Amino acid sequence: MPQETSTNGFVLAGGKSRRMGQDKATLQWGGTSLLEHIILLLSTVARPVRVVGRGEFLDSIPDKGPMGGILTALQSTNQDNNLFLAVDLPLLTPDFLKMFHSRFLRSDRPLLACRIAGEFPLCLGIRKQLSEDIERRVTADNLSIRTLVRETDTEIVEEPELRRLGLDPAMFANINTPQDWERLVKRS
User: Fold this and answer.
1) Out of 36, 87, 148, 164, which residue is the most buried by the measure of CB atoms under 10 Å away?
2) The CATH number of 7-187 is which of 3.90.550.10, 3.40.50.300, 3.40.50.850, 1.10.3290.10?
């Protein structure tokens, strides 16, 4: 069994996949499920990696989207450093995650995010100290990741920095519809 690290990993996989029409986590990617792919990817930098939103690790406050999953994870962890990935980001790479994790560990800010085409993909480094703030947001139905990033002392990795490091921002393509999935499969 892999040893624990100073960083816990969490895969957010509790979505209903309404626009996709089927459970995204079970889609096949590289000979395995998308969920298993993301778990293996995240385990290159974080241990243990837990899946939030399914099985025995359901959201503590149901139907609150990714913010509810983040809250559940932060309430369950004893680690200060926590990395979160959405289950539908299959193009992320181990090289990117190593850079992202290293940057998070060096940062003195409680939140690390990437800004890609003006959006903040669900790839976040969050310190446990944000638990109470996130709980307030979830109970008030303030569920926007974008708002969390903008209203928190956040360090942001920008697209030009990724390009300078030889990383393609297109790796943040996510899957919401069957058409998104088709495009991604053709691309890979």
Assistant:
1) 87
2) 3.90.550.10
